[in-house]
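Need a sequence for this fold. Nothing fancy.
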């Protein structure tokens, strides 16, 4: 007979003294508590620390989704882990109670730069400037790095070996993407004429702004 798994610290992981239904409910409660308490998306590896070897985390997560189906929040898979997020339909309710909330201080110009990095990474500042048809300042790049949305990646093989930039896990988490595969299909944006042609930058900016879900009031900040 296999030996029972030892608990980590004072936490009994396998809960072999409990009947199966009670064991499952305890595992579910632990997983839900960890995700609820975490400020960042919680990975599978982290969740595995609070349940037994016989626990199927995928089924646990499915049960949490079922239990929260009628609630104003839901569990979402984002940035390689799981997080609780308020459902989109309750934005007006939250604003009425708490006032206007803002998920980012990004201007439209910086939002467009950010999404340029997301789609074409790794990409240098010069390449972003060429893509958008305007000079991208070092200050704009510094602002996105300060927000934690982009980071320096590999150096480009072009003259001067400038840094190419890539998006971060915070970018995925902030904007609700599980991975970069969740970005809107680039070919659809090209077919719509939003990228890949001269004069399309204004439409591209508006489209990428919508992807980020930023407030309309920010649209003119960069023109001030």
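Here you go.
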């Amino acid at each position: 007979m296999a030996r029972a798994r030892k608990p980590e610290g004072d936490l009994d992981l396998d809960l072999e003294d409990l009947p199966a239904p009670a064991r499952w409910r305890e595992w579910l409660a632990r997983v839900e508590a960890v995700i609820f308490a975490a400020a960042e998306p919680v990975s599978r590896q982290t969740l595995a620390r609070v349940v037994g070897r016989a626990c199927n985390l995928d089924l646990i997560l499915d049960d949490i989704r079922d239990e929260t189906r009628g609630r104003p929040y839901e569990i979402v898979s984002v940035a390689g882990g799981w997080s609780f997020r308020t459902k989109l339909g309750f934005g007006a309710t939250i604003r009425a109670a708490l006032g206007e909330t803002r998920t980012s201080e990004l201007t439209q110009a910086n939002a467009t730069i950010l999404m340029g990095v997301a789609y074409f990474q790794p990409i240098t500042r010069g390449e972003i400037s060429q893509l958008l048809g305007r000079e991208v300042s070092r200050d704009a790049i510094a602002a996105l790095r300060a927000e934690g949305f982009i980071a320096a990646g590999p150096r480009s093989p072009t003259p001067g070996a400038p840094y190419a930039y890539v998006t971060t896990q915070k970018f995925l988490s902030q904007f609700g993407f599980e991975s970069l595969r969740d970005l809107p299909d680039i070919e659809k944006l090209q077919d719509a004429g939003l990228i890949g042609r001269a004069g399309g930058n204004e439409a591209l900016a508006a489209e990428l702004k919508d992807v980020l879900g930023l407030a309309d009031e920010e649209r003119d900040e960069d023109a001030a």
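For context: Residues 20-37 form the longest helix (18 residues).
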